[in-house]
Task: structure prediction
Amino acid sequence: MIINLLAASFESLTGVPEIVAYVFVFVFGGIVGSFLNVVIHRVPNEESIVFPNSACPKCKTAIKAYDNIPILSWLILGGKCRSCKAPISARYPAVEFLTACLFLLVYWQIGLSPILPVYLVFVAAMIALIFIDAEHMILPNVITYPLLVLALLVRILFPIVFPENYFSDTQFFPATLFAEQPAWIVSLFGAVVGALVGGGSLWLVGAVWKALRGVDAMGLGDVKMMLGVGALLGWRLAFLSIFMGAFAGAVIGVIVIARQKDKDLQTQIPFGIFLGIGSILSLLFGEQLISWYIATFVP
Result:
């Protein structure tokens, strides 16, 4: 769960009903989702995400602005290109709608908090990585590296600029060992520990598995992705992200293998999909899940 320490009411600040803010966030999320579709399509192909303008992949006709309205344009056009009537993948409105809904959830959790833009960027990065990994089985460095840099900068600058604590891991061991130090040092230490737990643990599992079985069990893309996740969310939520991702991946893996005619235990399943889902869930509900688990199962 995101720490809601400086959540401001949109209505109290502007006098405008809160529902207006939710509508704005949803629309903004849809617009960002439209941009993410460009990222998902072009980044794996090492193409510019700025130029040229979007065009139909079949007839190459440039897509007009009125045909590029998130979600609505796809529905109005019946999922087909206006010029050549070629089908347009349902992935496009799905990404737009998913991004809009997740942006709404983040805003619902924290309101107009200074950390809001950071978490929206985080969610957008996770969505892009999930869909790219699903289609190409890669997690591009141009997304994972900036995510790590952003996480480290946020963990340093936010404690300096804002008196509130936005990072739950700083309240727990081992960050509490530095409790007497400036807040930014405690936060940065927490980020380093989180990165080690997130990325380091995956790297260790992959190294051990390769030593024992002689095959790669974990791609470096997964490791780089979880370095950024752990640095931003801290070690507790990074561990929870990996746990939920591994559990979901194992379940899906068993289903996929069971449906195969030739049972191949070496079937590759993009783990980044499940790590991304686990990371988003940890961002939104992680602290609640941890608190529930401790209250239910820990004496």
